[in-house]
Amino acid sequence: MIRRRALIAGAPSLLAAPALAQSAGDWPNRPVRVLIPWPPGGSTDVLARLLCEQLGTKLGQNFVLENRPGAGGNIGMEAIAKATPDGYTQGPATIANLSIAQFLYSRLPFDPEKDFSVISMHWELPNVLVAPAQFCPANTAQEFIAWARSRPNGVSYGSPGVGTTAHLCGSMFCDRQKIDGQHVPFRGAAQIIPAMLAGDLTFAIDNLASYIPVIQEGRMKAFAVTSPERWPSLPQIPTMGQAGIPDFTITSWCAWVGPAGMPRPIIDKVNAAMKEIAADPAMQRRFEQTGARCVWSTPEDALKHAASQRPMLQEMVRISGAKMD
């Protein structure tokens, strides 16, 4: 049963490493390097750039972005984990990095629970069940399920890679709905969308942010979102529950992190700036236009949220059979 868990009290702290003896008074006095563990153009990259524009303005230094994709985000996350914890290396860590990776890999180059200073939650967005309008006759989720079951050779679903929420959602959807589904991994939505529009891929349950333009253009049919409520930017799309698919609530999310041992005054300074950004209606509108919601939390609540998601995601990995060793 997929549902939101209560936040786990006493979650392991990613802030436990000894901090450098440094106040936040003179920080930052040079540009801050932001390592993005995913390719350019994806939702993590786009939303990190929106945040960094504002962080630079509020904190008085440039936040310089550098994409470090590869190995399901592990290359970029390892680089953050091994950076000097002086506040000058930060980056976005997604649900895949902090709450899924440990169930996919028997060995990781970092410990998701110990090797990062978590600063705040950054964004949240749902996945959306979509199919190409030109090749799919269904107009509702239930019609899509019936159509997919009737396909003599089954269906295929795309994801940005093994173990991503798109993969896990697609696998669980096919398992529960008794659909013969074949997973096809891609590098990202920039490759998945053309494959669907060309008729080479049947559907996806992928991050909404990447699909808003093709949904609005009518080239892609959107049947349901995986959030607990309808999403503000596309209120006409029902939730999975409203579409007759119960217990299918899961959102993708991202936290803002640095290496373990960052001085708490610096963490608090960035956290305070992120709180102001999330409270800005103009920034919320910009995030909503991309399909996401700008969020903020204390470092402790971000840690608890990451921990609370792990049992659910571990079960989804088990259903999918995904392994990355």
Kindly describe this structure.
It is a single chain. The protein has a domain at about 30-120 and about 255-305: Bordetella uptake gene, domain 1 (D-Maltodextrin-Binding Protein, domain 2). Strands 1, 2, 3, 4, 5, 6, 7, 8, 9 and 10 form a ten-stranded mixed sheet that branches. The model is unreliable at about 1-20 (pLDDT under 50). It has helices spanning about 45-60, 75-80, 95-105, 140-150, 165-175, 190-195, 210-215, 265-280, 280-290, 300-320; strands at about 30-35, 65, 90-95, 115-130, 155-160, 180-185, 205, 220-225, 250-260, 295. The chain contains ten helices and ten strands. It is α/β, with parallel strands linked by helices and about 325 residues long. α3 packs across α10. The protein is globular and about 65 Å long. The two termini are about 25 Å apart. InterPro entries: BUG, Bug_dom1. This is Tripartite-type tricarboxylate transporter, receptor component TctC. Keywords: Receptor, Signal. It comes from Belnapia rosea. Belongs to the UPF0065 (bug) family.
